[in-house]
Amino acid sequence: MGRGGDTPFSSKSRKADTDREGFPRALPFPFVHLHGVGKGDYLHACRTVRALKAKNPLDAPPNSPPDEPAALQDARREPVLTLPGALTAYIALLAVIHLRVLLPPELENWTIDVFGFIPKRYDSSLLNLAIPGGAGAKVWTFVTYSLLHANLTHLGFNVLWLLPFGSALARRFGPVRFYLFLAVTAAAGALAHLLTHEHAVAPMIGASASVSGAMAAAIRFAFVRGSFLSFSRSDADTAAKVPALPLSRALRDGRVMGFLAVWFGVNIIFGIGAIGVDTEGATVAWQAHIGGFFAGLLLFSLFDPVPRARPNAADASSQDISDRV
Length: 325
Known about the structure:
This protein is mostly helical. It has two domains: 1-12 and 28-49, no CATH class; 85-322, Rhomboid-like (Rhomboid-like fold, Up-down Bundle). Helices cover 53% and strands 0% of the residues. The chain is built from 14 helices and no strands. Helix 7 (152-173) packs parallel to helix 9 (208-218), helix 8 packs across helix 9 and helix 8 runs antiparallel to helix 13 (286-303). The termini are far apart. Mean pLDDT is 74; it is low at 1-37, 57-62, 64-80, 273-279 and 313-325.
């Protein structure tokens, strides 16, 4: 036995615990004085030291990231731009249909005549004018024209406006309501075009009326506190499902009125100036835009599944600004 009750080490164990020069081998933990300990205490000490090393930031691997809040980690994993499935499918459909430009010119013109909206088709004064599509085209062209586009620029502009407004609306309505809403606003745009171009022979194509309707519907809740155009924006799904303001109260919101002024101003300028959407100088059917816009603004409540805001919560949009001051 060694002095002071130290745990004895035989010469054999000492040899195993020393290197060739007689110095103690490096232990897996700082040197401690062992007094009356057994194997279990030794293992316990090893575990304790390893735990202390794990907690010591200086011993952590140099490339290990620091601890981050869970919300920040989730935000980093979330893509910059996420589209709901309904809108992604709609954009993909528009892109696939636009491949018709690869068809021979005769067949491409036939598809425009059959599926484009032609006001002259409804003119009973000229019975001898033969327009492809027959009686059925008088029904389906109120919607199918919105799936055709003149060129990639025309298609790209409509898709660009659909990304923010269509995304919010698709999340709010769900696929079925969203597609039905686009069809109704397209029909409203066709009706407005028919009333203002009764004898026009040129076909109207493009999803602009539906896009305008989606924009009008979205501003019913876009500026509400927590929505996608407010200063205190929530995540995409929550922002799209905030209670919408009543139309009368929304029209008293300065931001909504500013949006309406800019939107109508741009469309009127495009209409008066007859700015073309392609190299052939096809004019913008701005009356159809306005028809779709009014339909989206007025018919929003018929499609909206989110309960209306309470009267005392209707001032959420103005509160959104006051909290920033």
